[in-house]
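User: I'll paste a sequence; please echo it back and then give the predicted structure.

Assistant: Echoing your sequence first, then the prediction.
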Amino acid sequence: MSRVALITGGGGDIGAATGRALAAAGWIVVLADLDAEAARAAAEDIAGAEGRFLDVADTGSFPAFVDGIGADHGRVDALVCAAGVEPPHTLADLDVAAWDHTLEVNLRGPALLAQATLPWWRRAGGGSLVNIGSRTWLGGAHPAYAASKAGLVGLTRSLALELAGLGVRVNAVAPSFVPTRFARQRGDAAVVAEFAEQVRRTSPLGRLVTPEDVAAAVAFLVSDGAAMITGEVLHVCGGTQLPAFPRRAVPA
């Protein structure tokens, strides 16, 4: 029987790319998104996939939602939490509502979705959770967003310890800037483009991260090839996490 993966933020570029990567590896994929039309449109391009509505801020809906997937497919093996928000607030203009919403989507959502998936992992004797984080957990960004992504690392490591005895592996993927629709909507187009070029120039590998790069990391982490990997944060950022100096490149 094919394994089943639930991907939140499935209507976005990273979620959809992850769905394609897992489907190519033989998984049944459920793309969940607040924008149900986007999730369904993404699913149309993936054999055997489906798109469903899910509001990650509505934690009360999680048990019935996950159980519905389990009832339809007989199992839920992997949870990939790719849904996220990033209000472009500085400390000076950050309000309580924006702070709370960022943490409820980016941090509380993954925690309680994992809780809702737990009975299915128990039933299967194992499973995998991958949280899509961000390089900003180390480098900083908008305060609420960076705090939520740093918290996601703490959650990842805590759940890795707690769930290891059940055979559930928990990891995070932390990309640097990815030029997705989500990223392009975060501010003025010229400012975003300038930032993207700055990231590209500072990357030792000389290019930006793509949704497919992130998806490949997720596909590895949920695979049997990562059977002894848990509690890790896999940075997908072309080397931008490395110290800037000294940089000694081998001549091409």
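The chain has a mean pLDDT of 91. Residues 96-124 form the longest helix (29 residues).
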